[in-house]
Specification:
signal, TRAP-type C4-dicarboxylate transport system substrate-binding protein, globular, D-Maltodextrin-Binding Protein, domain 2, 5-stranded mixed β-sheet, single chain, TRAP_DctP_sf, 4-stranded mixed β-sheet, alpha/beta
């Protein structure tokens, strides 16, 4: 009888141990991926909100089998460090500010060479998705840095925020306007203004101290950076939505996912654009609604006066530079150029 009891106890212990082992095995099979970003967690803007949405959706759609932990506020890698950090596997997901790397990712920064252009945030996102599906060279450019684009986050449509009213091209003559990249300096010069290179973090003081007269920006970012405290004229000049950020992955991490999880990430990337654009629209509407109380005046700029300078040789040379890079990579540029034409 004692032997039977002992065998029963041993059997129960074995079952319990098996259950514990199974639980640990299941837990071990779950993956926690790292997302590295320069955005502060409490930013409360469309970028931060939509990032959290992606993370929550990933966990939900994988049935809580996998999750993403975010390292906010540049705690792991600063803005310009993220591509190399992702490539090295320091993170699995991350935000790449594409215009900061026009030489490293020229194809994926196509829109940065075509300012002004007429497309909105959601339209640019759709074009980037289409180009990646149509031209393998876009993905190959990133793959050379061990990266994979899984989503697109264009910036909002830009105008000019100025310290004095600008009602026509004539009012821009001699104005000092913040520029960066290739297209903006050429456009500012074509409009008769002076391009000035000033970091985003320094533009508030530059506007306040009249080092700058204007900066290209959208309402959400103007409010987020508090520029609208020191510059009270928002000029509705149709510069178009800039292509801002890639939601990128370490390519090895992406390829190492099982087929089901990869499919979830791919669909999330497509769904992300709509969520982000919706959050951005809500922010822009709220900012615009609050501008009268802050004393910000919105001024319509004659669109035809902007469009008239697009044929300027300086602007066209910037566009030709991208066309040359695209054709050297084997990408037929005609359709892309046409899609970005006014």
């Amino acid at each position: 009888m004692t032997g039977l009891l002992n065998r029963g106890k041993l059997g129960s212990a074995a079952i319990a141990l098996g259950m514990i082992t199974a639980a640990f095995t299941t837990e071990a099979a779950a993956d926690t991926y790292k997302w590295i970003t320069f955005k502060p967690q409490g930013a409360g803007d469309a970028q931060a909100i939509s990032t959290q949405w992606f993370i929550d959706e990933f966990k939900k759609r994988t049935g809580d089998e996998h999750e993403i932990e975010v390292y906010w506020g540049g705690s792991v890698a600063k803005t310009r460090e993220i591509p190399d950090s992702l490539a090295a596997g320091v993170g699995d997901f991350g935000d790449i500010v594409t215009p900061y790397f026009p030489d490293k990712f020229p194809l994926n920064n196509a829109v940065g060479f075509f300012i002004p252009q007429p497309k909105s945030t959601i339209e640019i996102s759709g074009l980037m998705e289409k180009w990646h599906e149509t031209y393998p060279q876009f993905a190959e450019e990133l793959a050379r840095s061990n990266l994979k684009a899984v989503g697109f986050r264009p910036l909002e449509s830009y105008g000019l925020l100025c310290t004095t009213p600008i009602r026509s091209a004539g009012d821009l003559k001699g104005k000092r306007i913040r520029t960066y990249g290739f297209a903006y300096p050429a456009l500012v010069e074509a409009l008769g203004a002076t391009p000035v290179s000033v970091a985003t973090s320094e533009a508030y003081e530059a506007l306040e101290r009249s080092i700058l007269d204007c900066t290209p920006i959208g309402p959400a970012l103007a409010h987020g950076w508090k520029y609208d405290e020191v510059a009270k004229y928002y000029i509705e000049i149709p510069l178009g939505a800039s292509f801002g950020h890639l939601i990128a992955m370490n390519l090895d991490t992406y390829n190492g996912m099982d087929e089901k999880t990869r499919a979830i990430v791919d669909q999330l990337g497509k769904d992300y654009a709509k969520n982000y654009a919706g959050e951005l629209d809500k922010t822009i509407s709220a900012v615009r609604a609050g501008w009268p109380e802050k004393g910000v005046e919105v001024i319509q700029f004659p669109a035809d006066e902007l469009i008239a300078v697009i044929d300027d040789e300086r602007i066209q040379n910037v566009r030709k530079e991208w066309i040359g890079r695209a054709e050297a990579a084997g990408v037929p540029s005609d359709e892309i150029v046409e899609e970005l034409r006014f």
